[in-house]
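Dear all,

This email documents one entry for the complex benchmark we are building for the journal club exercise. For each entry we list the sequence lines for every component of the assembly. Then comes the predicted three-dimensional structure of the complex as a token string, followed by one or two observations. Please use this as the template for your own entries, and keep the labels exactly as they appear.
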Amino acid sequence: MEAQSKPSPPAKDLPGEKAERIIEAMRQSVARRGVAGSTFDHVAREAGVSRGLLHYYFGTKERLLVEVVRREADLRFDALDRQLAEATDADAFLRLLQTSVDEMLRTDPTYVTLTFELFTLANRNEEVAEGFRDLMQRTRKHLADSLRAKEQEGVLHLTVDPESVADVLFSVGDGLTMRVLAEPDRDFGPAISAAIRSLRGLLDDA
Amino acid sequence: MEAQSKPSPPAKDLPGEKAERIIEAMRQSVARRGVAGSTFDHVAREAGVSRGLLHYYFGTKERLLVEVVRREADLRFDALDRQLAEATDADAFLRLLQTSVDEMLRTDPTYVTLTFELFTLANRNEEVAEGFRDLMQRTRKHLADSLRAKEQEGVLHLTVDPESVADVLFSVGDGLTMRVLAEPDRDFGPAISAAIRSLRGLLDDA
DNA sequence: TCTGTCTTTCTGGCCAGCCAGCCAGTAATC
DNA sequence: GATTACTGGCTGGCTGGCCAGAAAGACAGA
């Protein structure tokens, strides 16, 4: 995307730093308060701009949420790439996965909460649905590409196609994270171990 | 707290058939319109009662939603028991799982949509959070008990504790269902096969 | 450098619509 | 006649979107 090169009348791609602040404020607000609770009033205050500016940039709440989805995708790619870079065998790969999940849960479960918020909204809004679909597709493709690369390096030996592995991996990740968030006092160690044990069957035929 | 519990000291549980209709109407409405879109006006009309009756029985929207969660749990138990009853070995068990998931997706993905709706609401309402926690716990326990029974019958040979198996199984189920709903045109056959293949590692050490 | 004009960015008051909850009152039941 | 079951009009509060206009730049000419 082009930065704030010029103010284009038709499509205001990225008006600049204030738009960024708004999107990020909305993202955090949705994770904390939900879509319904994220009023323009709240978000504007947290972004340090006026309410009107949200309409000036994005028009409607839905379009702002689509931008939130887009940003979310970018953030996930960064996180994914950072995590997978250093794996040198299937065990290391799965260990990295586990620690990154642990860390995510301890520090900021925004991702998963936001995923579910956006999914529920997507059921009722085609614009958001399209964005969400794109988020799922791109995330899957991204991980699948990484898996393919790891396979060529000899780190992994996939027993099924990489896209399917990505689907299963993200699915069990989302589902478990939801459960951990729902029952924070329960020890999910055994469940996470079981998940990893079952995933190994897809990553390594050794 | 006990505003509407006057009529029957022994049990405020079931005011009757109208309350049932309200709960079921709310359940379906939440799955279709989301929590925010499920106004008392809509739900009352669909249940064939007046708006005021919803307040008369449940007081607040949250308390009505807690009843929805409770009902959801009951429905799930029925479905689970029906599905697992006839499995005679691990393969049959997993095949049953696959067909029941397929059928659920084709006919009525209410379950999963509702799960996510309630989860997002639970983030903001302690009453609902408690109900949701209970839903997760009871569902897990229920499947774990079935798994234990199947193990004693010699149908399955679990490689980890049944509760963890249940967690992983439901997690991957929820996550995949969400993805299927988000991308209805994509063929998830390979992904579902991959999921089942990975789950086999937990169900059968043969 | 100053000044005036035009454009873009940004503000916040306003409004119409919606909703949960309240409550006064009516119907049903005993 | 009294208690319980039920109704629906009302309201206060909130929200997204609109818009008139204020600030902030941009630019030209003197």
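Observations: Residues 126-152 of chain B form the longest helix (27 residues). Residues 1-13 of chain B have pLDDT under 50 and may be disordered.
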